[in-house]
Specification:
There is one protein chain. This protein is about 75% helix and about 0% strand. The protein contains 5 helices and no strands.
């Protein structure tokens, strides 16, 4: 029961924060400085998602050439810098990662 209460409470908190900022009926306006700061939220969240996956694949720091997550990420960064389409970068990177996984476990 405690888990369900926590889930409902967090859903209400999330909804209320978003409603206050997005509803046109509530007269809340965000200043230009806060708007500029909010542009950094997406890169911060994405970084918080990929860093543990790439650098700690087995709950231990792994910065070696045998880490397929690190090699796949480096390839994706390199391909993205060449201005290829995003879909092509993702496809090539996933293919490279799968090939590394099959080579390691195959």
């Amino acid at each position: 029961m405690n888990d369900w209460l926590m889930i409902v409470a967090m859903a209400l908190i999330t909804f209320s924060v978003r409603y206050v900022l997005l509803a046109r009926s509530v007269p809340v306006r965000i200043g230009p400085r806060l708007q500029r700061l909010l542009t950094y939220s997406a890169p911060a969240v994405l970084t918080a998602l990929w860093v543990p996956i790439v650098f700690f694949p087995e709950d231990e720091l792994s910065v070696t050439v045998t880490n397929p997550y690190l090699l796949g990420a480096l390839l994706a960064i390199g391909l993205a810098c060449t201005r290829l389409s995003m879909l092509l970068v993702v496809g090539i990177s996933i293919g490279f990662f799968v090939a590394l996984q099959l080579q390691v476990f195959g």
